[in-house]
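#random but structural
TW: two for the price of one
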Amino acid sequence: MDLSLKDFLDKKVLEFNQPDFIPNDPISIPHQFSKQEDIEIMGFFASILAWGQRRTIINKCNELIERMDHAPHDFILHHQDQDLKSLLGFKHRTFNDTDLLYFIGFFKQHYTRFSSLEDAFLQGSQLGEPFQVETALNHFKSYFFSLPDFPLRTRKHVSSPAQKSSCKRLNMFLRWMVRKDNAGVDFGIWKNIDAKDLICPCDVHVERVAKKFGLMQSDKVNWKSAVELTENLRSLDPLDPVKYDFALFGLGVVGEL
């Protein structure tokens, strides 16, 4: 890989991976909390709802926090049926209250059994085998929809590599939870998944800039192209390839190219 490209992207990572990145990005939502379960829950919601303008996404997530009395984990574990009325009418794009109620049901059963959402992504790994994001995400979707009578319409909100999806939102969520550095943007609160194994989230900004740099050749954005991009980023930094998400996304957003 061209060393001049690595030097340029490394500088852009340092430029965009800063605390002032947080307020205008959906990652600001989990940054409102200090309790790990709240960070996980609202990080998951913020990533799943990340469609459209970032300001709208942030506003809708703040609305959801308010509907859950500013204590998502406590609300999920201890709500009574009548408390769920506060969630009715919630909507963002094609995500509605039917989907939201199922998400709440899943989180309740999961956190009744486990202390962290990380366990939901580890269950697909065989003991002693290295963690693979593709296996984890495919298993996660099956696990997420393992509750009886899940709404069929809700399945479209949780993607998987088996569908050939790039899984942009879930890969973004994993980056938030797993990556740890001194910049303070990503949380790094999960310890059983390594940053070197993550797959780069591919949104329209990342795709456009990656193609300009020859880091992605595929015409379609799917799981295969996300893996292709990540493999090229691993040639720049094998231990932390998805840190370049900051550079590619940032360059795309500011229109520097």
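TW: number two ↓
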Amino acid sequence: MDDLFPPFEPDPNEPKPRRFKPVPFRMIAPNMITLMALCLGLTAIRLAFEGKFEPAVIAVVVAAFLDGVDGRVARLLKGTSRFGAELDSLADFVNFGCAPALILYGFALFHLRSVGWIVALIFAIAMGLRLARFNAMLDDPNRPEWKKDYFVGMPAPAGAMTAMLPLYLHFLGLSFEKWAAPAVLVYVLCIALLVVSTVPTFSGKTMGKRVPRGWVLPIFLAGVAAFGLLISFPFEAMVAISIAYLAVIPVGAAQYRRRARLDLPGRPEPSESQASSASGP
């Protein structure tokens, strides 16, 4: 029997098994923020099932704030990774697609039964498609640098925040009975269409890289005032922010078209006489 199972001695020159390298904390911290935002989105869904719409909305708003923080923390710590980007997209779909759709369905769309559920599905799927398109556009090497100032369509956090405008109004005392459900349905459908549209909207990512010294203190005061208003009058502030954002969309689209015309490859250079006349007296 000993011949059947001869003793085996490992080769002393054989390389040791490969061990995983330790991951630095700077790579973990942004993903922890993303996971906290994801937990808030899932908690918002649970609160919506329990009929607690006010804390559910607050959870989604805080998740949107964390979504804006995690990417900046990753860039600040130089902890960006492909894993973090994929996790962020998954969290965005849950927080800004599934959670608002279920909250809105439990709030008003359930009155319309299957039609309301279909619109909730359309809103959630529109968020998924928008995020997929955003990830695909990041790999476009021919995209001009100035286009980074704009999103294609309404971004996911803004779409979720503006879609919940009927809830903000409800918390301020505006009653949404069964008869108002069709109006909510049309509004949510319009937001879903804006999300998947090609309407350019301001991104704000390249704003504020350099601030003049004279603007520093006024910006601090404005930030403190805005934070105080948001804490003291949260839903009034969310109504104002939502309406202002929707009103600015045409302005951003017009500015995008103007910059696109200036960036045309076959556009002729202005002559010396045109340049001197444009410079003024």
